[in-house]
Amino acid sequence: MVHDGYQALKWGIANIDQRLTQHVSQGWQVAARWNFELTGDAWALERQIKAWVLGQGVPRALTADQMKYGGHTETAYLTDISLALVQAYVVSLTGRNPEPPQTA
Prior knowledge:
The chain has helices at residues 17-24, 39-55, 83-94, and strands spanning 2-3, 8-10, 28-29, 75-77. By secondary structure, the protein is α+β, with helices and mostly antiparallel strands.
């Protein structure tokens, strides 16, 4: 997800559409989505992304106060790391491209 106002990106798992809707209501836009059959696989990927981003020396972008629905520890400023780079990393781990965008 990306937020134009914060100029930040966010990754994380959302096992229900309500979670995405909550973040969208706060100005976030879905940039890419990978679906998983097993929740454990999604959790593992989220942890791998977080460790990799932090390993690149990229700090957390937002605070808990800025994230009404949680997830501040999975944020980074777009000036610190690009969305394309994070997406490429996810593709390298999963071996697949994101799901096609959903239309309303």
